[in-house]
Specification:
By secondary structure, this protein is mainly α. It is 54% helix and 6% strand. A two-stranded parallel ribbon has the order 1-2. Strand 1 (43-45), helix 3 and strand 2 form a beta-alpha-beta unit. Helix 2 (14-38) packs across helix 3.
């Protein structure tokens, strides 16, 4: 099943709830190691999964809080487009430093 189907069946399907609970546990375990090692100011979660964040993010936050980790978890406003916009922005900044816009030719 895909995430949307699982999310749609969350209230009536114990298996769907189990999948989200297991996902939340795995994500919390990963984030705990990442946050402890890298100490970010916040963590932004993106992609289509954020459409179902209400079904797992509170569990992730509670699991992290129980470990004394209170780094804010945010959902990307751009959803699954966030990575593409970030990559384009980085490319734009790097390309400007390599070749000023006034020297770029367009076809």
């Amino acid at each position: 099943n895909n995430v949307k189907t699982l999310a749609d069946n969350f209230d009536n399907d114990v298996h769907a709830r189990t999948v989200f609970a297991e996902f939340a546990e795995a994500l919390a375990e990963f984030l705990a190691r990442f946050i402890t090692h890298d100490k970010p100011e916040a963590v932004v979660i993106g992609g289509n999964i954020i459409k179902a964040s209400a079904l797992f993010l509170p569990h992730v936050e509670a699991t992290l809080a129980a470990q004394g980790i209170h780094t804010p978890l945010k959902t990307a406003v751009l959803g699954e487009e966030a990575a593409m916009v970030g990559a384009a922005s980085l490319w734009h900044n790097v390309s400007d430093s390599v070749m000023p816009p006034s020297q770029v030719r367009t076809l």
